Amino acid sequence: MPDAIAHEPGRFVLRIDGLEAEVVYERIGDVLDVRHTYTPPPLRGRNVAARLTAAVVEYARREGLRIRPTCPYTREYVARRPELQTMVAD
């Protein structure tokens, strides 16, 4: 069973082997300003950041929100996926 991503106020978090990876955001009106992504070094290379970012995108889609990819990782993630361009806030 895959590890569950938790949605806590202002962030999505994934806990694996006692370590915590997260995507931090601020909601501003109908925009999620995605500010920071962090994956502890032992968890890197396991698609943890991508899974967390996908959870943010799915949440935004479900809630009818747009995304402002302030975080460099999120900006790159969104840029690689043309289908997400309509979700990007100016």
Describe, in plain words, how this protein is organized in 3D:
- The protein has 90 residues and is of the alpha+beta class.
- It has one domain (5-87): Aminopeptidase.
- It is built from 2 helices and 5 strands, in the order ββββαβα.
- It has a 5-stranded mixed beta sheet.
- α1 (48-63) links the parallel β4 (31-38) and β5 (66-69).
- It is globular and about 35 Å long.
- The chain starts with a strand and ends in an 11-residue tail after the last helix.
CATH fold description: Aminopeptidase
Q: Going by CATH, what is the homologous superfamily? A: Gcn5-related N-acetyltransferase (GNAT)
Give the overall shape, derived from the CA principal axes: globular
Largest sheet: 5 strands, mixed
Tally the beta strands.
5
The number of domains: 1
Overall SS class: alpha+beta
Beta-strand percentage range = 35-45%
Reading off the top of the CATH hierarchy, the class is best stated as Alpha Beta
For the largest beta sheet, what order do the strands appear in spatially?
A: 1-2-3-4-5
The residue-averaged pLDDT reads: 95
Topology as H/E string? Answer: EEEEHEH
The Cα radius of gyration reads: 12 Å
The unreliable regions are none
Percent helix: 25-40%
Task: Put the structure in a nutshell.
With 90 residues, this protein is α+β, with helices and mostly antiparallel strands. The protein has helices at residues 48-63, 72-79, and strands at residues 5-8, 11-16, 19-28, 31-38, 66-69. It is globular and about 35 Å long.
